[in-house]
Amino acid sequence: MIMKRTLLLLLTVITFSVSSNAQDNSDRLSLGIGCLYKNGLDLTLSYEHIGNYHNAWEFFANGYIQWNKCASCGHICPESFWRNYRSYGFGAAYKPCVVRGRNHHGNIRIGASIGSDTRHFMGGFHLGYEHNYVLQGGWCLFWQVKTDLMIKGEDLFRTGIVLGVKLPLN
Question: What keyword terms does UniProt attach to this protein (predicted)?
Fold first, then answer.
């Protein structure tokens, strides 16, 4: 409950403190939430620097939980959802632009991360596609198709869809 309130407060403060100027050589803060195979939930908070022609560098923090059915009741209960398998990571990704349109663009996302689950150090390689829709005031809505190769994690491959929003920081 404290984490939800903290994220909501952070998002509110950022919303009221950003300006509405977004163009090449600008910065954005993004929040993405998605579902990954198998039974995974992904949350990514990132800082993105956009260079020329919508090519970008992204520095991110990622949290991941994987739920399972409870052994005692046979359903997905709060205990089996929040405490089954959790991991976090920090990393960077380069995103070259491959599609450009009037108010949208698409990027390939290539990156790496390091992090931990509750027991072991782990690393990851990330590959995917991200499509951005630019709104008035520089805000962006985006979707990602992502695939993660996790080294020394409980699950080797993670793949799924992430939806999110980007806020301009200039």
Answer: Signal
User: What are the pLDDT digits (tens) for 86-105?
Assistant: 899 999 999 999 999 988 99
Backbone phi, then psi, for 69, in 5-degree steps? -70, 145
For the whole model, what pTM was predicted? Answer: 0.79
**For the domain bounded by 2-168, which CATH number is listed?**
2.40.160.20
> Cα(130)–Cα(74) distance, rounded to whole angstroms?
37
Q: Name the E strands within 38-154.
A: 40-50, 56-66, 85-95, 97-100, 104-117, 121-134, 140-151
CA distances in angstroms from 128 to 107, 147, 157, listed in the order given: 9, 6, 13
pLDDT in tens, 36-79: 988 899 999 999 999 888 899 999 999 999 888 777 777 777 77
Which residue ranges make up each domain of the chain?
2-168
